[in-house]
Amino acid sequence: MRFETSQSMKMGQHMKLAPRMIQSMEILQMPLAELEERLEQELESNPTLELIEGDGEPSSGDASAASTGEDGRATQEKKVEGADEFERLDSFEESNPDTVDNEYTEVTPRERSRDDDFDGLTYRKVRESGGDRDTKMDAMAAAPARGASLLDQLRGQWSLADVDDSLRPYGDLILNFLEEDGSLKTTLETIADRAAVAGLAGVAGMAGTGRGSNASGATSRGGVLQFTTRPSVEQLEHALKALQLFLEPAGVAARSPQEALLLQLDALEGGGNDLGWPMEAFAAAKRIVEGHLDDLMQNRLPKVADRTGLSLEQIKSALTLLRRLSLAPGRRLVETNERPIVPDAIVEFDDGSDRYIAYLNDAHLPSLRINEEYARLTRDKTMEKRDREFIKTNLGNAQWLLDAVNQRRQTLLRVVHKVIEHQRDFFDLGPQSLKPLPMTQVADELGIHVATVSRAVAEKYIATPRGVMPLRKFFSGGVARGEVTEESSEGVTTTTQSEVGDSLAWDAIKVALQEVIGTEDKRHPLSDEALAEELKKRGITIARRTVAKYRDQLGIQSARLRKVY
Description:
Low-confidence stretches: 57-83, 98-131, 201-212, 486-501
Distance between the termini: 82 Å
Mean pLDDT: 77
Radius of gyration: 35 Å
Largest sheet: 4 strands, mixed
Helix content: 40-55%
Structural class: alpha+beta
Shape: extended
C-alpha cells in the first residue's frame, strides 16, 4: 500500500453563518427572562455599553470616572461627607455600646430618639451617595433557600428515629437504593449482594451517613458504609419495616404501588374517625387493594362487588378514600421549581376603536446605549493602537447587540399583529373558534423566512383577555368543515375533501371534543365511534382513530374508564 500526498485546487460554494448572525438568531429566539439575563451579562462584560436610567441619564461607568473639574470636586466633597458620617457612626458606637454588641436592654425614650437619629443618618447617607438599592442583591436575599433532596430529608428522619442502633446501618443502606419518588424497586437480595464488605473486592460501596463504627459492626470510611459481614435478607427486612414505620410521609420505601397504598391506609386508620371516615371504609379499601387493585384500576366495579361481596356504595366510599392517597408519596418532599411565565407581548381590547391592540412587555428590560465617551476615544490619535482596537471591537459588538434587540422587537410585534389579524374570532368567541394558521403563510405576508417566524414564536408567551398562552398555540394546522381526517395505523394523517366550510384548527377540534365528552351521560359514556358521530353533527368530520388520538392528548380516559356506576 502506497501513501502519496499532493496539492490540488477545488472551487465550491459554502454557506457559513457569521458569529454575529448566530447571535442575532439566538436573541430572536430568547424568551423575555433569558433576554434580560443576556443584556445584563453584556452590560457587565462590554465597557462601551451603559445603562439608561429612568430620567434618561446614563449610569456611572468607567468613562464617567475620567471626568475632571466640577465632577472631581463633587466627588471629593462626597468623600468628605462620608468621612463625617463615619465619625458620627463612631460616636454612636461609643455612646451605645449595648446596641453595638447586639445586647437587648429596655429602651428608654431618650435612647429611642438616638436610634431614630441613627436611622435618619443611614437613610441620608444612602440618598447622598446617589445610589439606589441593588435589585440583584434584593432578589438574591429574597430567593428561597435550596431545598434538601429527598434522600437527605429521609436520612435526617432516620437518624432521629427511635430504633435499635443495630438497624441504623441497614436502614442507611436501603435508603441509598430508593428511587426519586421514594419507592424501592431494588430487591433486598440485590441490596445485600451490593453492600460493601470490608476485605472484599469488587463490591459496590454506597455512601453512608458519615458515622463511625456501630453495634452492627458497620463502619463509615470516606463516606462509604462498610460492613464486617454481608447483611442478610432478614436483617434488611427488619430495617425496611422500621423505615416504613418511622419515615414520613407514609408509603415511603414501598416496594409496589399496592404496598404504598396499604402503608398509607394504616397510617390514616388511627385517625380515621377524626377525619370523618368510618372504620368500615378502611376495611373495604384494604380488602380491595390487597386482592382486586387491577380490577379497580380498570373501573370493573361490578366484578369487584361480585368477588368481595361488597355493595357498590361501599366500593365507591372506599374509592373516594383511596383518591386521597398517592402512588408515589415521596414526591411530596421534593420541591418542584417551576419557572414563572413572563409574557413577551400583551393583547388588549380597545373599546373606542373596536379592535385589539398589542404591545411588547419589555418595559423592565435594561435600556442600553453606547457610551459617547468611548465613541470619542476611537478618534483619539494619541491613544495606543491596541487600546483603540479594543474599544472599536467592543463598540461593534455593542452596536450589533442593540440592532439585534431592536430587530427582535420589530419582528415579534409584527408576528403578534398578524396573529391578531387572523385569529380575531378566537379573541372574540374563544378557543373553539381557533383557525389554522401555518407559519409559511405569516412568513409570506411579512416577507421573511419561515425559520424567522419559528424562532420569533419559540418559547414565547402572550397575555390575552382569555389568559396567558403560548404564542405557538396560534400556529397550527387543521381541517375545514366537511373534510374527513383519517389516521392510519402507521400514524400517517390523510385528509379527503368534501363540502368545505370554515376551517378549524386542531386545538378547536379538541375543545369541541371536550364539550361533547363533558355533556355525555356518565352512566352510558360515548365510545370513540360515537364521539366521531357527535362531532360530525357539528360539522367536524374526523375518523375514530383521530378521536382516540386527541382524547389521549387531552388526558381523557376511554369510555369504559369514564363510566359511573
